[in-house]
Amino acid sequence: MSEFNPEDTLIAVLAGLEVKVAEIQRELRRLKALARNLEEENTRLRAWLTEAASEIKGEDKLRLLYEQGYHICPAQFGRVRSTEGCLFCHSFLEKRG
Ligand SMILES: [Zn+2]
Fold this sequence. Notes:
Elements: H1 10-55, H2 59-67, H3 87-96
Bound molecules: zinc ion (ZN).
């Protein structure tokens, strides 16, 4: 049997947990603020991209945008796409081209 360690009393353990929970809450607040900022920035960038693309007339420019890794299909326009490509973007390009 191990010796009784006053550090291990339930109250001490709970106090330790309370400190950790407070740290986690602080980190959570920080990450939520960061996520909010990133969402706002993303919204601004997508609005800018949509506006910029509306000024783009040529098929080649849309294709270029797609090749640079962005969706050009109406449902996901301006979002970063996966490297595998997007069927909707492809059919959108085919319809226009
Ligand atoms: Zn797409």
